[in-house]
Amino acid sequence: MPTTLLRDSRALATLAVPLVLTQLAQVALTTTDTVMMGLLGTRELAAGGLAIVIFNQLRTMGVGLVTSVGNQIAAAAARAENATEASQGKASEDVRGIVRASLAVATLAGVAGAVLMILVGRCLGLLGQDAAVVDSARTMLFALAPGLLPCLWFQAIRQFTVGMRRPQALLQITVASIAVNAGLNWVLIHGTWGLPKLGLTGIGVATSTVYLLSFLALYVSARRDAELAPLLSLNVAKADPATVGRLVGLGVPIAATYGSEAGFFSLTTLMAGSFGPAALAAHTAVNQLVYIVFQVAVGLSHAASINVSRELALGRVDDARHIKNTALACAAAVMTVVGVVYVTLPGLVLAPFLDSGSDRALDIATHLLMVTAFLQFFDCAQNIGVGLLRGLDDTRSGFRITLIGYWAVGLPAACLGAFPLGLDTVGIWLGLLTGLATTAVLLLRRYSTSLTARTAVAPAPAPA
Question: Is residue 279 part of a domain?
Protein backbone atom coordinates (compact mmCIF):
# COMPACT_ATOMS: atom_id res chain seq x y z
CA MET A 1 0.00 0.00 0.00
CA PRO A 2 2.77 2.57 0.80
CA THR A 3 4.36 1.82 -2.59
CA THR A 4 1.03 2.30 -4.36
CA LEU A 5 0.38 5.55 -2.48
CA LEU A 6 3.83 6.87 -3.38
CA ARG A 7 3.39 5.96 -7.05
CA ASP A 8 -0.08 7.52 -7.19
CA SER A 9 1.15 10.66 -5.43
CA ARG A 10 3.96 11.10 -7.93
CA ALA A 11 1.63 10.57 -10.89
CA LEU A 12 -0.86 13.03 -9.42
CA ALA A 13 1.79 15.64 -8.63
CA THR A 14 3.25 15.44 -12.15
CA LEU A 15 -0.01 16.80 -13.53
CA ALA A 16 -1.44 18.66 -10.54
CA VAL A 17 1.47 20.96 -9.69
CA PRO A 18 1.73 22.69 -13.10
CA LEU A 19 -2.07 22.79 -13.35
CA VAL A 20 -2.47 24.38 -9.91
CA LEU A 21 0.21 26.97 -10.69
CA THR A 22 -1.41 27.66 -14.07
CA GLN A 23 -4.80 28.20 -12.41
CA LEU A 24 -3.26 30.60 -9.88
CA ALA A 25 -1.53 32.48 -12.70
CA GLN A 26 -4.88 32.84 -14.47
CA VAL A 27 -6.30 34.42 -11.32
CA ALA A 28 -3.43 36.93 -11.45
CA LEU A 29 -4.32 37.62 -15.10
CA THR A 30 -7.93 38.56 -14.33
CA THR A 31 -6.83 40.52 -11.24
CA THR A 32 -4.58 42.66 -13.45
CA ASP A 33 -7.56 43.63 -15.60
CA THR A 34 -9.59 44.54 -12.51
CA VAL A 35 -6.79 46.71 -11.10
CA MET A 36 -6.44 48.53 -14.43
CA MET A 37 -10.20 49.18 -14.56
CA GLY A 38 -10.12 50.58 -11.04
CA LEU A 39 -7.36 53.03 -12.00
CA LEU A 40 -9.62 54.45 -14.72
CA GLY A 41 -12.43 55.32 -12.33
CA THR A 42 -15.58 54.04 -10.64
CA ARG A 43 -17.76 54.10 -13.76
CA GLU A 44 -15.15 52.25 -15.79
CA LEU A 45 -14.76 49.65 -13.04
CA ALA A 46 -18.53 49.13 -12.91
CA ALA A 47 -18.84 48.86 -16.70
CA GLY A 48 -15.78 46.66 -17.06
CA GLY A 49 -16.91 44.44 -14.20
CA LEU A 50 -20.32 44.01 -15.84
CA ALA A 51 -18.73 43.09 -19.17
CA ILE A 52 -16.26 40.68 -17.55
CA VAL A 53 -19.06 38.90 -15.66
CA ILE A 54 -20.92 38.26 -18.94
CA PHE A 55 -17.74 37.20 -20.74
CA ASN A 56 -16.65 34.89 -17.92
CA GLN A 57 -20.05 33.20 -17.74
CA LEU A 58 -19.93 32.33 -21.46
CA ARG A 59 -16.22 31.49 -21.35
CA THR A 60 -16.67 29.16 -18.37
CA MET A 61 -19.49 27.26 -20.05
CA GLY A 62 -17.47 27.07 -23.28
CA VAL A 63 -14.52 25.65 -21.35
CA GLY A 64 -16.89 23.07 -19.88
CA LEU A 65 -17.75 21.86 -23.38
CA VAL A 66 -14.12 20.85 -24.05
CA THR A 67 -13.10 19.79 -20.53
CA SER A 68 -13.80 16.10 -21.20
CA VAL A 69 -11.30 16.17 -24.09
CA GLY A 70 -8.39 15.61 -21.71
CA ASN A 71 -10.01 12.42 -20.42
CA GLN A 72 -10.70 11.13 -23.92
CA ILE A 73 -7.12 11.87 -24.98
CA ALA A 74 -5.69 10.17 -21.87
CA ALA A 75 -7.69 7.00 -22.50
CA ALA A 76 -6.84 6.94 -26.22
CA ALA A 77 -3.14 7.58 -25.50
CA ALA A 78 -3.07 4.73 -22.96
CA ARG A 79 -4.58 2.38 -25.51
CA ALA A 80 -2.03 3.55 -28.08
CA GLU A 81 0.86 2.77 -25.72
CA ASN A 82 -0.31 -0.82 -25.31
CA ALA A 83 -1.43 -1.40 -28.89
CA THR A 84 0.31 -3.93 -31.10
CA GLU A 85 2.52 -2.58 -33.86
CA ALA A 86 -0.16 -3.40 -36.40
CA SER A 87 -2.79 -1.34 -34.60
CA GLN A 88 -0.48 1.44 -33.43
CA GLY A 89 -1.41 3.66 -36.37
CA LYS A 90 -5.14 3.39 -35.69
CA ALA A 91 -4.66 4.17 -32.01
CA SER A 92 -2.68 7.31 -32.87
CA GLU A 93 -5.34 8.32 -35.40
CA ASP A 94 -7.92 8.06 -32.60
CA VAL A 95 -5.99 10.73 -30.67
CA ARG A 96 -5.73 12.94 -33.76
CA GLY A 97 -9.45 12.51 -34.34
CA ILE A 98 -10.26 13.66 -30.82
CA VAL A 99 -8.02 16.72 -31.24
CA ARG A 100 -9.74 17.67 -34.49
CA ALA A 101 -13.18 17.16 -32.96
CA SER A 102 -12.27 19.21 -29.87
CA LEU A 103 -11.18 22.14 -32.04
CA ALA A 104 -14.42 21.84 -34.01
CA VAL A 105 -16.44 22.00 -30.77
CA ALA A 106 -14.32 24.94 -29.57
CA THR A 107 -14.89 26.77 -32.85
CA LEU A 108 -18.66 26.30 -32.75
CA ALA A 109 -18.83 27.32 -29.09
CA GLY A 110 -16.56 30.33 -29.65
CA VAL A 111 -18.58 31.68 -32.56
CA ALA A 112 -21.93 31.08 -30.84
CA GLY A 113 -20.66 32.62 -27.60
CA ALA A 114 -19.29 35.71 -29.34
CA VAL A 115 -22.61 36.32 -31.12
CA LEU A 116 -24.51 35.81 -27.87
CA MET A 117 -22.16 38.21 -26.08
CA ILE A 118 -22.92 40.95 -28.59
CA LEU A 119 -26.66 40.30 -28.35
CA VAL A 120 -26.53 40.46 -24.55
CA GLY A 121 -24.63 43.73 -24.83
CA ARG A 122 -27.45 45.20 -26.90
CA CYS A 123 -29.97 44.16 -24.22
CA LEU A 124 -28.13 45.58 -21.20
CA GLY A 125 -30.17 48.78 -21.33
CA LEU A 126 -33.29 46.77 -20.53
CA LEU A 127 -31.90 45.68 -17.14
CA GLY A 128 -32.20 49.04 -15.43
CA GLN A 129 -28.47 49.78 -15.41
CA ASP A 130 -26.98 53.28 -15.62
CA ALA A 131 -26.95 54.44 -19.26
CA ALA A 132 -23.30 55.54 -19.23
CA VAL A 133 -22.23 52.25 -17.65
CA VAL A 134 -24.22 50.30 -20.25
CA ASP A 135 -22.60 52.17 -23.15
CA SER A 136 -19.10 51.49 -21.83
CA ALA A 137 -19.89 47.84 -21.02
CA ARG A 138 -21.39 47.28 -24.48
CA THR A 139 -18.28 48.67 -26.20
CA MET A 140 -16.03 46.47 -24.07
CA LEU A 141 -18.13 43.39 -24.87
CA PHE A 142 -17.59 44.09 -28.56
CA ALA A 143 -13.85 44.12 -27.89
CA LEU A 144 -13.96 40.94 -25.79
CA ALA A 145 -16.18 38.89 -28.14
CA PRO A 146 -13.46 38.06 -30.73
CA GLY A 147 -11.22 36.77 -27.92
CA LEU A 148 -13.60 33.97 -27.00
CA LEU A 149 -12.66 31.92 -30.08
CA PRO A 150 -8.86 31.75 -29.50
CA CYS A 151 -9.58 31.34 -25.76
CA LEU A 152 -11.49 28.11 -26.44
CA TRP A 153 -8.93 26.97 -29.03
CA PHE A 154 -6.31 27.38 -26.32
CA GLN A 155 -8.43 25.31 -23.94
CA ALA A 156 -8.83 22.52 -26.51
CA ILE A 157 -5.08 22.24 -27.06
CA ARG A 158 -4.54 22.58 -23.32
CA GLN A 159 -6.73 19.53 -22.77
CA PHE A 160 -4.72 17.70 -25.44
CA THR A 161 -1.40 18.42 -23.70
CA VAL A 162 -2.82 17.52 -20.28
CA GLY A 163 -4.35 14.31 -21.62
CA MET A 164 -0.94 13.40 -23.01
CA ARG A 165 0.52 14.21 -19.56
CA ARG A 166 2.76 16.97 -20.96
CA PRO A 167 1.31 20.19 -19.48
CA GLN A 168 4.56 21.90 -18.51
CA ALA A 169 4.42 24.62 -21.20
CA LEU A 170 1.06 25.80 -19.87
CA LEU A 171 2.58 27.46 -16.82
CA GLN A 172 5.29 29.36 -18.72
CA ILE A 173 2.79 30.61 -21.30
CA THR A 174 0.26 31.70 -18.67
CA VAL A 175 2.90 33.54 -16.61
CA ALA A 176 4.20 35.27 -19.73
CA SER A 177 0.64 36.26 -20.65
CA ILE A 178 0.30 38.17 -17.35
CA ALA A 179 3.19 40.48 -18.28
CA VAL A 180 2.01 40.83 -21.88
CA ASN A 181 -1.54 41.58 -20.73
CA ALA A 182 -0.40 44.25 -18.26
CA GLY A 183 1.78 45.91 -20.92
CA LEU A 184 -0.94 45.86 -23.58
CA ASN A 185 -3.49 47.18 -21.10
CA TRP A 186 -1.30 50.18 -20.31
CA VAL A 187 -0.40 50.88 -23.94
CA LEU A 188 -3.95 50.61 -25.29
CA ILE A 189 -5.57 52.46 -22.39
CA HIS A 190 -3.28 55.50 -22.68
CA GLY A 191 -2.46 55.35 -26.40
CA THR A 192 1.33 55.28 -26.09
CA TRP A 193 3.76 54.50 -28.93
CA GLY A 194 1.46 56.12 -31.48
CA LEU A 195 -1.47 53.80 -30.80
CA PRO A 196 -5.01 55.17 -30.28
CA LYS A 197 -6.11 55.97 -26.74
CA LEU A 198 -8.90 53.41 -26.14
CA GLY A 199 -9.50 53.73 -22.39
CA LEU A 200 -11.64 50.90 -20.99
CA THR A 201 -12.09 49.37 -24.45
CA GLY A 202 -8.31 48.95 -24.60
CA ILE A 203 -8.52 46.41 -21.78
CA GLY A 204 -10.98 44.36 -23.85
CA VAL A 205 -8.75 44.57 -26.94
CA ALA A 206 -5.71 43.60 -24.85
CA THR A 207 -7.53 40.60 -23.37
CA SER A 208 -8.61 39.33 -26.80
CA THR A 209 -5.08 39.82 -28.13
CA VAL A 210 -3.55 37.93 -25.21
CA TYR A 211 -5.92 35.00 -25.78
CA LEU A 212 -4.83 34.85 -29.43
CA LEU A 213 -1.13 35.06 -28.55
CA SER A 214 -1.53 32.40 -25.84
CA PHE A 215 -3.19 30.03 -28.29
CA LEU A 216 -0.43 30.56 -30.86
CA ALA A 217 2.28 30.08 -28.22
CA LEU A 218 0.75 26.82 -26.99
CA TYR A 219 0.28 25.57 -30.55
CA VAL A 220 3.92 26.34 -31.43
CA SER A 221 5.08 24.66 -28.21
CA ALA A 222 3.09 21.53 -29.03
CA ARG A 223 4.42 21.47 -32.59
CA ARG A 224 7.97 21.51 -31.21
CA ASP A 225 7.27 18.55 -28.94
CA ALA A 226 8.33 15.32 -30.64
CA GLU A 227 5.58 13.33 -28.91
CA LEU A 228 2.76 15.83 -29.40
CA ALA A 229 3.47 17.14 -32.90
CA PRO A 230 2.47 14.00 -34.87
CA LEU A 231 -0.87 13.91 -33.06
CA LEU A 232 -1.78 17.60 -33.33
CA SER A 233 -4.17 18.20 -36.23
CA LEU A 234 -5.95 21.50 -36.86
CA ASN A 235 -7.93 20.21 -39.83
CA VAL A 236 -11.36 20.87 -38.37
CA ALA A 237 -13.02 20.08 -41.71
CA LYS A 238 -12.01 16.42 -41.25
CA ALA A 239 -13.54 16.19 -37.78
CA ASP A 240 -15.63 13.03 -37.36
CA PRO A 241 -19.27 13.99 -36.62
CA ALA A 242 -19.67 11.03 -34.27
CA THR A 243 -16.63 12.11 -32.22
CA VAL A 244 -17.87 15.70 -32.16
CA GLY A 245 -21.26 14.44 -30.96
CA ARG A 246 -19.63 12.35 -28.23
CA LEU A 247 -17.61 15.32 -26.97
CA VAL A 248 -20.69 17.55 -26.99
CA GLY A 249 -22.68 14.87 -25.14
CA LEU A 250 -20.01 14.73 -22.44
CA GLY A 251 -19.39 18.47 -22.42
CA VAL A 252 -22.92 19.85 -22.13
CA PRO A 253 -23.47 18.48 -18.58
CA ILE A 254 -20.06 19.86 -17.55
CA ALA A 255 -20.93 23.28 -18.99
CA ALA A 256 -24.28 23.14 -17.20
CA THR A 257 -22.55 22.18 -13.94
CA TYR A 258 -20.17 25.13 -14.22
CA GLY A 259 -23.06 27.47 -15.00
CA SER A 260 -25.13 26.12 -12.13
CA GLU A 261 -22.29 26.53 -9.64
CA ALA A 262 -21.63 30.10 -10.79
CA GLY A 263 -25.33 30.91 -10.46
CA PHE A 264 -25.47 29.40 -6.96
CA PHE A 265 -22.61 31.53 -5.67
CA SER A 266 -23.94 34.63 -7.45
CA LEU A 267 -27.28 34.21 -5.70
CA THR A 268 -25.61 33.95 -2.29
CA THR A 269 -23.81 37.21 -3.07
CA LEU A 270 -27.17 38.91 -3.64
CA MET A 271 -28.39 37.44 -0.33
CA ALA A 272 -25.34 38.81 1.49
CA GLY A 273 -25.97 42.23 -0.04
CA SER A 274 -29.41 42.32 1.60
CA PHE A 275 -27.67 42.66 4.99
CA GLY A 276 -25.89 45.87 4.00
CA PRO A 277 -22.59 47.07 2.51
CA ALA A 278 -20.44 45.73 5.37
CA ALA A 279 -21.85 42.21 4.97
CA LEU A 280 -21.43 42.34 1.19
CA ALA A 281 -17.85 43.56 1.51
CA ALA A 282 -17.04 40.76 3.97
CA HIS A 283 -18.72 38.16 1.77
CA THR A 284 -16.85 39.41 -1.31
CA ALA A 285 -13.47 39.36 0.45
CA VAL A 286 -13.85 35.84 1.83
CA ASN A 287 -15.34 34.60 -1.43
CA GLN A 288 -12.23 35.83 -3.25
CA LEU A 289 -10.02 33.94 -0.78
CA VAL A 290 -12.06 30.79 -1.37
CA TYR A 291 -11.73 31.31 -5.13
CA ILE A 292 -7.94 31.54 -4.90
CA VAL A 293 -7.61 28.41 -2.75
CA PHE A 294 -10.14 26.66 -4.99
CA GLN A 295 -7.55 26.69 -7.79
CA VAL A 296 -5.67 24.01 -5.84
CA ALA A 297 -8.81 21.87 -5.96
CA VAL A 298 -9.16 22.49 -9.70
CA GLY A 299 -5.62 21.29 -10.37
CA LEU A 300 -5.99 18.20 -8.19
CA SER A 301 -9.40 17.40 -9.67
CA HIS A 302 -8.18 17.64 -13.24
CA ALA A 303 -5.05 15.60 -12.58
CA ALA A 304 -7.01 12.89 -10.75
CA SER A 305 -9.58 12.82 -13.55
CA ILE A 306 -6.95 12.33 -16.26
CA ASN A 307 -5.21 9.57 -14.27
CA VAL A 308 -8.52 7.75 -13.72
CA SER A 309 -9.22 7.77 -17.47
CA ARG A 310 -5.76 6.37 -18.09
CA GLU A 311 -5.96 3.61 -15.47
CA LEU A 312 -9.38 2.46 -16.65
CA ALA A 313 -8.18 2.37 -20.26
CA LEU A 314 -5.44 0.04 -19.05
CA GLY A 315 -7.95 -2.09 -17.11
CA ARG A 316 -6.58 -1.16 -13.68
CA VAL A 317 -9.78 -0.54 -11.72
CA ASP A 318 -8.14 -0.90 -8.29
CA ASP A 319 -5.57 1.76 -9.19
CA ALA A 320 -8.41 4.08 -10.19
CA ARG A 321 -9.86 3.58 -6.71
CA HIS A 322 -6.53 4.45 -5.09
CA ILE A 323 -6.40 7.71 -7.06
CA LYS A 324 -9.48 8.96 -5.20
CA ASN A 325 -7.85 8.35 -1.82
CA THR A 326 -4.57 9.96 -2.91
CA ALA A 327 -6.27 13.07 -4.29
CA LEU A 328 -8.40 13.52 -1.17
CA ALA A 329 -5.36 13.04 1.10
CA CYS A 330 -3.38 15.69 -0.81
CA ALA A 331 -6.35 18.07 -0.73
CA ALA A 332 -6.85 17.54 3.01
CA ALA A 333 -3.19 18.31 3.71
CA VAL A 334 -3.30 21.61 1.79
CA MET A 335 -6.67 22.64 3.21
CA THR A 336 -5.52 21.90 6.78
CA VAL A 337 -2.56 24.26 6.41
CA VAL A 338 -4.75 26.98 4.91
CA GLY A 339 -7.44 26.47 7.56
CA VAL A 340 -4.91 26.85 10.39
CA VAL A 341 -3.78 30.17 8.87
CA TYR A 342 -7.40 31.34 8.61
CA VAL A 343 -8.11 30.55 12.25
CA THR A 344 -4.86 31.86 13.76
CA LEU A 345 -4.13 34.88 11.52
CA PRO A 346 -7.47 36.20 10.24
CA GLY A 347 -6.38 39.84 10.37
CA LEU A 348 -3.32 39.18 8.21
CA VAL A 349 -5.33 37.13 5.69
CA LEU A 350 -8.02 39.80 5.34
CA ALA A 351 -5.70 42.82 5.32
CA PRO A 352 -5.32 43.02 1.50
CA PHE A 353 -9.11 43.20 1.12
CA LEU A 354 -10.46 45.01 4.19
CA ASP A 355 -7.50 46.88 5.66
CA SER A 356 -9.17 50.25 4.99
CA GLY A 357 -12.73 49.02 5.39
CA SER A 358 -15.13 49.22 8.30
CA ASP A 359 -14.59 47.40 11.57
CA ARG A 360 -18.02 45.82 11.07
CA ALA A 361 -16.98 44.28 7.73
CA LEU A 362 -13.74 42.97 9.25
CA ASP A 363 -15.63 41.41 12.16
CA ILE A 364 -18.08 39.65 9.82
CA ALA A 365 -15.29 38.44 7.56
CA THR A 366 -13.38 37.05 10.55
CA HIS A 367 -16.40 34.95 11.53
CA LEU A 368 -16.82 33.81 7.93
CA LEU A 369 -13.20 32.64 7.88
CA MET A 370 -13.98 30.29 10.77
CA VAL A 371 -16.71 28.69 8.65
CA THR A 372 -14.48 28.70 5.57
CA ALA A 373 -11.76 26.77 7.38
CA PHE A 374 -14.14 23.77 7.29
CA LEU A 375 -16.09 24.64 4.13
CA GLN A 376 -13.03 24.46 1.89
CA PHE A 377 -12.51 20.75 2.71
CA PHE A 378 -15.90 19.96 1.23
CA ASP A 379 -15.49 22.44 -1.63
CA CYS A 380 -12.26 20.73 -2.64
CA ALA A 381 -13.72 17.23 -2.17
CA GLN A 382 -16.78 17.94 -4.32
CA ASN A 383 -14.60 19.35 -7.11
CA ILE A 384 -12.41 16.25 -6.98
CA GLY A 385 -15.58 14.13 -7.05
CA VAL A 386 -16.76 15.82 -10.24
CA GLY A 387 -13.35 15.17 -11.82
CA LEU A 388 -13.32 11.52 -10.77
CA LEU A 389 -16.72 10.93 -12.34
CA ARG A 390 -15.52 12.71 -15.47
CA GLY A 391 -12.73 10.13 -15.56
CA LEU A 392 -15.48 7.51 -15.83
CA ASP A 393 -17.10 9.51 -18.68
CA ASP A 394 -19.99 10.04 -16.27
CA THR A 395 -20.68 13.77 -16.57
CA ARG A 396 -24.47 13.51 -16.25
CA SER A 397 -24.37 12.12 -12.71
CA GLY A 398 -22.06 14.93 -11.68
CA PHE A 399 -24.51 17.50 -13.00
CA ARG A 400 -27.53 15.90 -11.32
CA ILE A 401 -25.76 15.56 -7.99
CA THR A 402 -24.54 19.16 -7.99
CA LEU A 403 -28.10 20.31 -8.68
CA ILE A 404 -29.23 18.41 -5.59
CA GLY A 405 -26.37 19.63 -3.41
CA TYR A 406 -26.38 23.27 -4.50
CA TRP A 407 -30.04 24.02 -5.09
CA ALA A 408 -32.09 21.40 -3.19
CA VAL A 409 -29.91 21.40 -0.04
CA GLY A 410 -27.47 24.32 -0.05
CA LEU A 411 -29.79 27.16 -1.03
CA PRO A 412 -32.63 26.27 1.41
CA ALA A 413 -30.04 25.80 4.18
CA ALA A 414 -28.53 29.21 3.40
CA CYS A 415 -31.96 30.86 3.46
CA LEU A 416 -32.84 29.11 6.74
CA GLY A 417 -29.62 30.12 8.43
CA ALA A 418 -29.65 33.69 7.15
CA PHE A 419 -33.27 34.66 7.80
CA PRO A 420 -35.40 32.49 10.16
CA LEU A 421 -32.40 31.63 12.36
CA GLY A 422 -31.11 35.21 12.21
CA LEU A 423 -27.46 34.29 11.53
CA ASP A 424 -27.23 36.74 8.62
CA THR A 425 -24.12 36.29 6.44
CA VAL A 426 -22.72 33.53 8.66
CA GLY A 427 -25.97 31.64 8.07
CA ILE A 428 -25.46 31.95 4.32
CA TRP A 429 -22.00 30.43 4.60
CA LEU A 430 -23.22 27.64 6.86
CA GLY A 431 -25.75 26.89 4.12
CA LEU A 432 -22.94 26.86 1.56
CA LEU A 433 -21.01 24.44 3.76
CA THR A 434 -24.06 22.16 4.05
CA GLY A 435 -24.65 22.16 0.30
CA LEU A 436 -21.01 21.50 -0.56
CA ALA A 437 -20.75 18.72 2.04
CA THR A 438 -23.86 17.02 0.65
CA THR A 439 -22.52 17.33 -2.89
CA ALA A 440 -19.11 15.92 -1.92
CA VAL A 441 -20.57 12.88 -0.14
CA LEU A 442 -22.93 12.05 -3.00
CA LEU A 443 -20.28 12.48 -5.70
CA LEU A 444 -17.66 10.35 -3.94
CA ARG A 445 -20.22 7.66 -3.13
CA ARG A 446 -21.32 7.59 -6.76
CA TYR A 447 -17.70 7.17 -7.87
CA SER A 448 -17.06 4.29 -5.46
CA THR A 449 -20.30 2.57 -6.48
CA SER A 450 -19.47 2.92 -10.17
CA LEU A 451 -16.00 1.45 -9.69
CA THR A 452 -17.41 -1.48 -7.71
CA ALA A 453 -19.79 -2.21 -10.57
CA ARG A 454 -16.89 -2.13 -13.03
CA THR A 455 -14.68 -4.43 -10.96
CA ALA A 456 -16.73 -7.49 -11.86
CA VAL A 457 -16.33 -6.88 -15.60
CA ALA A 458 -12.89 -5.24 -15.69
CA PRO A 459 -10.41 -6.69 -18.21
CA ALA A 460 -7.14 -8.10 -17.03
CA PRO A 461 -4.55 -5.40 -16.27
CA ALA A 462 -2.13 -4.56 -19.07
CA PRO A 463 1.33 -6.02 -18.60
CA ALA A 464 3.83 -3.73 -16.95
Answer: yes
